[in-house]
Design brief:
Elements (H helix, E strand, L loop, with lengths): L1 H27 L9 H24 L12 H24 L6 H29 L9 E6 L3 H12 L5 E7 L11
Parallel strand pairs: 1-2
């Protein structure tokens, strides 16, 4: 199952890498595909395989295919950001070496769209799990009170909320720290 998820993430990564360069051109030329010069289309076609290989290699180096995305958090986002920082010089070198000549804004638009898609792909599993759990709905089950509002309580509440097997409904949290009173966990 883990390999299947990795393959699905890889598939969507490659699909978005393929599409984002062309979408960036489309955006750059005011959403009019027919106003894009043929030389730009040719350069984008030449650039796309390099983008795919580079991005997948960098994603792999930054362990973006090894995370447990059901627990995606700030650490995964930090790895994505680091990967995208590492991609910049590599792509600049490839563009210079292979003589790719696209409008500068196209590179920036494609880069930002790729970053956004990478985040969406990786955090979508957690988001779908969140929706599937029925979070926000009143759940049937035993009403419980959590004592303590620290990190352990946050983990317990997260597990209760996202689990389809646990039938508890957290109704309150108590803690002796006054600064946590009335706060959302």
């Amino acid at each position: 199952m883990k390999n299947a998820r990795t393959f699905i993430i890889l598939f969507f990564d490659i699909l978005t890498m393929f599409c984002m360069g062309f979408i960036a051109l489309w955006i750059r030329f005011d959403f009019n595909f027919f106003s894009i010069e043929a030389r730009y289309i040719d350069d984008q076609i030449r650039l796309t395989p390099m983008v795919m290989i580079t991005f997948v290699a960098v994603y792999y180096m930054f362990r973006l295919y090894r995370s447990i995305w059901s627990f995606a958090s700030v650490s995964e986002l930090a790895r994505i950001i680091c990967a995208y920082i590492a991609i910049i010089p590599v792509m600049l070198i490839e563009i210079a070496v292979f003589g790719i000549n696209l409008p500068r804004s196209t590179y920036i638009i494609a880069y930002l769209l790729d970053f956004l898609c990478c985040c969406i792909i990786r955090f979508s599993y957690r988001f779908l799990r969140y929706l599937r759990s029925g979070r926000g709905r009143d759940r049937d089950g035993e009403r419980v009170m959590i004592i303590g509002a620290g990190a352990a309580a946050r983990e317990i509440i997260g597990d209760i909320i996202t689990s389809v097997h646990v039938r508890y409904h957290v109704v309150c949290i108590i803690d002796d720290n006054e600064t946590k009173k009335g706060k959302y966990m």
